[in-house]
Amino acid sequence: MSDTHAQSVPFVRESFIPEAPPPETDTGVVAWLRKNLFSTWAYALLTIAALYVIYVILAGVLPWLLNGVWNADSIQQCREILAGERGGCFAVLTERWNQLLFGFSYPTEAYWRPTLAFALLFVAAAPVLFTSVPRILLVATLLYPFAAYWLLWGGTILAPLVGLLGVIGGYLVYRRLIDRSFAYGLLGGIVAAAAIMWLGGFVVADQPRFLSLLPVQSRDMGGFMLNMLLGVICVSLSLPIGILLALGRQSSLPIIKWICVVFIEFVRGVPLITLLFVANVVLAYFLPPGTTFDLILRVIIMITMFASAYIAEVIRGGLAALPRGQYEAADSLGLDYAQAMRLVILPQALKISIPGIVNVAVGLFKDTTLVSIISMFDLVGMIRGPILASTDWGGVYWELFGFAALLFFVVCYGISQYSQWLERRLATDHR
Amino acid sequence: MAIHTDPPASGFRPSMLINDTRYRGLTFQFIALVLLIFAIAYLVSNLFGNLAAAGLNISYDFLGESAGYDINQRLIPYDSQSTHLRAAMVGLLNTLLVAFLACITATLLGVIAGILRLSKNWLVSRLMSIYVEAFRNVPVLIWILIIGTMVQQLPQPNAFRGENASASMLFDAVALTNRGIYIPGPVFGAGWTILLVVALLSVAGVVAYRRFALKRLYDTGRILPLVWPSLLILLVPSVLAFFILGRPVTLDYPVLRGFNFGGGVQIGVPLIALWLALSVYTGAFIAENVRAGILAVNRGQTEAAASLGLRPRRIMNLVILPQALRVIIPPLISQYLNITKNSSLAIAVGYADITATLGGITLNQTGRAIETVLLLMLFYLIISLAISAVMNLYNSSVALKER
Amino acid sequence: ATLDDVKQRGTLNCGVVTGLPGFGAPNANGEWEGFDVSMCRAVAAAVLGDPTAVQFVPTTGKTRFTALASGEIDMLARNTTWTFSRDTDLKFDFIGVNYYDGQGFLVPKALGVTSAKDLDGATVCIQTGTTTELNLADFFRKNNISYEPVPVETQAEGQQQYLAGACDTYTTDASGLAATRATFENPGDHVILPEIISKEPLAPLVRHGDNDWADIVRWTLNALIAAEEMGITSANVTELAASAGDNPEMNRLLGNEGNLGEMIGLSNDWAVKAIGAGGNYGEIFEKTIGENTPIGLARGLNAQWTDGGLLYSPPFR
Amino acid sequence: MTMTDDAATARNRLSVSDEIAIEIVNMNKWYGTFHVLRDIDLTVMRGERIVICGPSGSGKSTLIRCINALEEHQKGRITVDGTVLSSDLKNIDRIRSEVGMCFQHFNLFPHLTILENCTLAPIWVRKTPKREAEETAMHFLTKVKIPEQADKYPGQLSGGQQQRVAIARSLCMKPRIMLFDEPTSALDPEMIKEVLDTMIELAEEGMTMICVTHEMGFARQVANRVIFMDQGQIVEQNEPEEFFRNPQSDRTKLFLSQILGH
Amino acid sequence: MTMTDDAATARNRLSVSDEIAIEIVNMNKWYGTFHVLRDIDLTVMRGERIVICGPSGSGKSTLIRCINALEEHQKGRITVDGTVLSSDLKNIDRIRSEVGMCFQHFNLFPHLTILENCTLAPIWVRKTPKREAEETAMHFLTKVKIPEQADKYPGQLSGGQQQRVAIARSLCMKPRIMLFDEPTSALDPEMIKEVLDTMIELAEEGMTMICVTHEMGFARQVANRVIFMDQGQIVEQNEPEEFFRNPQSDRTKLFLSQILGH
Ligand SMILES: Nc1ncnc2c1ncn2[C@@H]1O[C@H](COP(=O)(O)OP(=O)(O)OP(=O)(O)O)[C@@H](O)[C@H]1O
Ligand SMILES: Nc1ncnc2c1ncn2[C@@H]1O[C@H](COP(=O)(O)OP(=O)(O)OP(=O)(O)O)[C@@H](O)[C@H]1O
Ligand SMILES: NC(=O)CC[C@H](N)C(=O)O
Ligand SMILES: [Mg+2]
Ligand SMILES: [Mg+2]
User: Fold this and answer.
1) CA separation (Å) from A62 to A88, A236, B131, B133, C97?
2) Which of A351, B95, D173, E95 is most exposed, with the fewest beta carbons within 10 Å of its own?
3) Is D59 close to ligand 1, i.e. is its CB under 6 Å away?
4) A24: number of CA atoms within 13 Å, CB side?
5) All chains having 3 or more CB pairs closer than 8 angstroms to chain A
6) Which residue of D has its CA nearest to E187?
7) Domain with B153 in it: what CATH number?
């Protein structure tokens, strides 16, 4: 067929050439190895170096893992059992798992409550995170905060119920008034909710035993549960605040913009640990005399402030990514600012921002370990405090830190995989 | 064309405060400002009320008092008789030192890992993914603690003692101990300034040579070799001068003295632990940025450059990197910011940064919580703003020109 | 006032150490135990009648004072040294010494050091923000020798660093050293050097200004000390309190005579409850840090004045 | 040019009333110091259809965006349907609900279905009950010939369909005046016709329209007047026939030669 | 169809020599196990202008990218200007400096000015002195009619201008063969013409060209041969006149009916 050139231009293929398998040299294990591991000398050297690194790591970790002691009362016993051999003393995990997960003062008989709350978290988060989940489950998301509150803190079920009623009542009033204007709706809703909760407060005070779970104080929460708690609460709270800050920063009103900019830049400019110091040592001075509120609450306030500044920046990115035309189209249809934001701009901007928000959430969740520096007993604080200080387990570092790292890794890796999945999906189905 | 005037300027009615676009904004801003002022006034009045009730006051006098404590790592002279302010300065410099060192190594690590992660070598790219994911998804505090514990496993200085010591120095010059790393330090003899001048001149020479080579390339098209001549210019004069001047700089080797090594230069173990931890942790993030930056450069760019006949290394230097850097550098700088902020966890490994000195010991010894925390935040804020300013400058200077 | 707050709350918020065996540490079940902890329990028992009505707030050397100053805790019982500036400048009230201590050095035997003055050039682990940190600096400066501090935040960390050999010696209150050493695998391999370089009167403290509250805590401590002196123990306290005896001071203390309780705004059997919570001073000492515990501290200065010690409760009158 | 006759006929079918729909008097606008609109005077009668053309940057978009209060003008007076445009929010609201606008890039809301796009403003601004709003929406979607797309999302539609949805969305607010800013210039050639057809239909129903476009066929067929703008000024206006056949000003001639030439 | 005559004339003006520029013999390529090019045989003479067309995914891009060694082929032989393409780097360099290539998306270097885009390769690959390279660049920029844009950045140019810069950039390397991969398909309709004009001019100067395009007018006007590919194979080739008038294979007919129909 080599005559298909200029001299005999016309050519028509008579027979279809069937698909053929690629040449041997291009397939199979050997070809794969050649292509992926040994394609050049430099690569071969790299491969060997990598293999060596893997060997060193495995040689160090495997015996420690496989030889590990899972049953012992103290590190001394571990050492006896190991009798000089290398091996981990994982007994500390089996002995103290409850403290690592729940802190040392959460009542043992109530461990099922945080566990259940944790499991329910998935049910509540699913409809938010995955659009394919039936919308009706959003009800579960709405109910979750109240259910989780009841499970974690205990006390009468009336308290969260009143809270729920207040929110529902507020929402109904808001719906009635929203036709007048957004501001009316919001104000009316808040007033109604506050009124219901205030009235409900008497009922709760009157019936503290009604369907009551053993009450647990915030101080008694610790371990990994505290990290989860702080992470979930602060991220949820910081979302609305972050949105407001982002809108404020985009605002054309200079003073409002300026307030938001100063707040955001200030919070982003200082390390979280200094904000925690503020929560720990300074905040009380700024509150009216006599208010003493829980360290945990103060910490939640500061971390929420911290997170909302970062979330505001993410959402600002989302807002900026929207074409101007969307704002103009909304304007030209006669929607007012609140309507345009609520109905047109934010739904789109938030969707774009989700991966960024998830990243902030992961970072924040990791940063909850910093509370151990102000002597709260989260997972890290638990390890560094009571466990390593105890006579029994002083000196067991790797097992404990490894366990902590593993827990965080599982959660954070899971979330970041989700965010990557989301990013891929957003990239493909933005039509 | 008839002359028309503006719409009749109707008088001001209060309802215009809400309904008129010109006043509405002012109204909102006024309300916001009033609320803000009230909030601040409320907080401040609480503050003074509480302080008065507790019989405390706000005063920065303590900064002038003698600190009374010692600091193990100091870049400026300091002893326990120095003031708290000086202790804060020591801490400040230590923060900057560890942040600076960690920025450099994290960048190196991140760039290498990021590029290797894109490598076609399956094993290496997998290994780098594991590195990146492992470090990104575990809190930096845990890494600091783990690495802090890890460096503690280095041999004690004691282990170097005696006939059959269980540890030995590398090349008889470097000792790795759990108190620090000891390396030979320079001792400057007569004539070292001349040597310094020679060395500086050689550096200038290298720069000049590279300029010349580029100009020559532009003028004549001849590409001169760069690596070998640069090295020669850099080293030969200095080495010659070193011997001609009769070895004006000698090395002081660390030796075991008393409890610890003496002589040479000591890099304290807290510094090393923090430096290492911040580097590997942030390196993982930087690796992601680098990877994203390189991937962000369209594949078409490589192909276009290749089809023009450019070699892979030149494609990297002339086409890919200049573009990728625009994508990489802004997040890189915010990573530097993160390093600086994360270095505030120094106390977890006993490193005396500003949070540990001013925000820790000084706060605790003097009880001046509000004052020290404010100072501390101010300090970090200044660093952050300075770094952001640099970033903005960079961004505006490299922004691609668009229509 | 603090008393009303505590009563209303139903629990006493008591600041303790994050973990120092014998003085204050949660056991495997998460219950706080120790010498300082017992002080908290005694106050809770006196005020609320329930030694378990205590919310323990762990504090580090750094956070302890702000926790107290900001009202987060009602009292701090955390091997804290009574010093001039803490009492005056920081605006606290130390209510009386519950342990007379001094700063010492812990070194490995193998190091061959016999005196603190031999420590020239040593690396010293030291808890930041403590008096011992300042004493250390003074001591080395005075003796014109050098050292290198390794700052640690908590007892546990100090122990970790010391055992890993990151420092040659660990210094803190001698009692703390004993407690630390007791947890070692081979306590015998470590010695506490003979020099005591400072006075460390450890005392519970409260906020300055609320004198009523300070009185309650102060006299609870005195009650425990006096109880030992009078031979009142947790075993016999209910019996002795049941009826007035022939010792008028004991009668007053146990509420059978006079109305001391009322004077400080408590019920008259406040001291009975306080002593019943964990026993008298001596009992607490023996149970938590005494010679029969792993800590193994001798009474020494902390013996009753009648036994040649410094414990000397003012009279209950 | 066989189209001319048809066009003239078509245009003559359309009636123009005596009522004034829009009156712009001596309007000036600056962007910063840049004088983008200079002494604009324009009166549009109810039922009139006006085409604005002119080189890029001449201020065409700015002019019609001022009518809709999307941009604020600094001098002069704009009266829409008897309401003087001022910075009073009530006024702006009233004018915006009288005036519909279609953009070059459609600006549909991508997170809402076609139907939701069309009912959003009626429900929230006009407070129409949802059912009623949906009926109206379907009516106008049918009119622009895409009722079957009601439940799709904008991203699933072609450009031409999207622009027709945008028109329907504006119509759902029952505006008395429609503004179009280059409605076809972001479309592929095949799609231009379907959008123009929709607009012609609208014109035939007597809607008052101001349309920035360079589709000269369209101008010939439906416009009562063609306005040529340059450098922020109205340079020439005339009936389309005259305008194209016999441009007066040199700038108009140059411009026409360019756009008709290619 | 009045164009046909003109086109034929234009084409006939262009001379084809006997020298072989590119020879492809029995070339096969796989992506993984996907057989993307099958037994390709093609000889291109110096001065010949070949247009390749075919449905999407038929392997057109892959074919011309193989010629440039942007993709590696696994079987068969490609000879460019007498050099057999192998994995030898020297060889690849030689071939790439003989062959210029233009992409659908221009792929200009956005961080360099137009002039720098054009001088980059001459300076670093051909080792031309900078002044000289700039002169050449200005010469070719003038040829593609945008010398005045030399100091702008690609982002500041329109698509058509960018594609012309891309052509000039390739020309600066003084290639003997030019490859075009759908050079106009990412352009707005107004800009297509300016790029095609540039290409026609190039063709008239006798440049050997292989061009993947669906611009049939262009094919008629300048191509010596049109090649139709489907499923990785050359299905038909012929002179443009014949090819369009009288396609032989059914697949070609179907394809032509589709692209000419719309
Ligand atoms: N927001 C703005 N700020 C400053 N200048 C602007 C702004 N919007 C438009 N301009 C300038 O005002 C002038 C008129 O813009 P306008 O969009 O009205 O032109 P146009 O006639 O619609 O042009 P085109 O045909 O390109 O749409 C242009 O020079 C433009 O650069
Ligand atoms: N890097 C790659 N890896 C795997 N498959 C590829 C790759 N590049 C292209 N293909 C596949 O090879 C086939 C031929 O692709 P090619 O780009 O050559 O088609 P084309 O004829 O140029 O189509 P178009 O007109 O869409 O540009 C397609 O099915 C494509 O999906
Ligand atoms: N070790 C401690 O935490 C306390 C040390 C010392 N007694 C102090 O009060 O400062
Ligand atoms: Mg416009
Ligand atoms: Mg292609």
Assistant:
1) 10, 40, 18, 20, 53
2) A351
3) yes
4) 0
5) B, C, D, E
6) D188
7) 1.10.3720.10
Q: Tell whether ligand 1 has an atom less than 6 A from the beta carbon of residue D100.
A: no
Q: Indicate the CATH number for domain E20-260.
A: 3.40.50.300
Whether the CB of D242 is below 8 Å from some CB of chain E: the reply is no
- Complex ipTM: 0.85
Rounded Cα gap, residues A289 and B400, in angstroms: 56
Range of the domain at B285: 84-184+253-398
* Burial class (CB within 10 angstroms; exposed 0-12, middle 13-18, buried 19+) of C111: middle
In DSSP terms, B255 is beta-bridged to B262
- Whole-number Å distance, alpha carbon E59 to ligand 2 midpoint, is 6
* Residue B190 CB-density burial (10 A; 0-12 exposed, 13-18 middle, 19+ buried): exposed
* DSSP, res A82: H
**Per-residue confidence of chain C (317 residues) as pLDDT tens digits?**
888 888 888 889 999 988 888 888 888 777 888 999 999 999 999 999 899 999 888 887 777 888 888 788 899 999 899 999 889 888 899 999 999 999 999 999 988 888 888 888 889 999 888 899 999 999 999 999 989 889 888 888 888 889 888 889 999 999 989 888 888 878 889 999 988 999 999 999 999 888 899 999 999 999 999 999 999 998 888 888 888 888 888 888 888 888 888 888 888 889 999 999 889 999 999 999 988 888 888 898 999 999 988 999 999 88
3-state secondary structure E29-66: EEECCEEEEEEEEEEEECCCEEEEECCCCCCHHHHHHH
Helices (H), A130-181: 138-153, 158-177
Ligand 1 pocket, residue D64 CB under 6 Å? no
Option in A13, A20, A27 nearest E234 (CB): A13
**Cα B348 from Cα B273, distance rounded (Å):** 10
Cα D31 to ligand 1 centroid, rounded to whole Å: 9
Residues on chain E touching B221 (C-beta within 8 angstroms): 123, 126-129, 132
The strand pairing partners of D52, in sequence order, are D212, D227
Question: Distances from the Cα of E167 to the Cαs of D20, E122, E173, in angstroms?
Answer: 56, 14, 10
Beta strands, E only, C4-160? 12-17, 25-26, 32-33, 54-59, 75-76, 92-94, 99-101, 103-108, 122-127, 147-152
User: In whole angstroms, what is the distance from residue A78 CA to residue A66 CA?
Assistant: 14
- Rounded to the nearest whole angstrom, what is the distance from the C-alpha of residue E32 to the centroid of ligand 2? 12
Residue with tokens 């007994």: A91
Compute the distance between CA of residue E250 and CA of residue E128 in angstroms, rounded to an integer.
51
Chain A interface mutation, best of B48, B145, B349, highest count of A Cβ atoms under 10 Å: B145
CA distance C181 to C189: 9
Q: What is the DSSP letter of B222?
A: P
Query: The dihedral of CA A220, A222, A225, A230: what is its sign?
Result: positive
Longest distance between any two alpha carbons in chain C, whole Å = 64
Kindly tell me the burial class for residue C64, based on how many C-beta atoms sit within 10 Å of its own C-beta (0-12, 13-18, 19 or more): buried
d(Cα C51, Cα C45) in Å, to the nearest integer? 4
C-beta atoms surrounding D233 within 10 Å:
16
**Is the CB–ligand 3 distance for residue C173 below 6 Å?**
yes
Domain residue spans in chain D? Answer: 20-260
Between CA A259 and CA C52 the distance in angstroms is: 48
CB B6 to CB D92 under 8 A?
no
Identity of the residue numbered E60: K
What is the position in ligand 1's atom list of the atom closest to the CA of D31? Answer: 4
User: Which of these, E102, E256, E262, E65, lies nearest to E185 by C-alpha position?
Assistant: E102
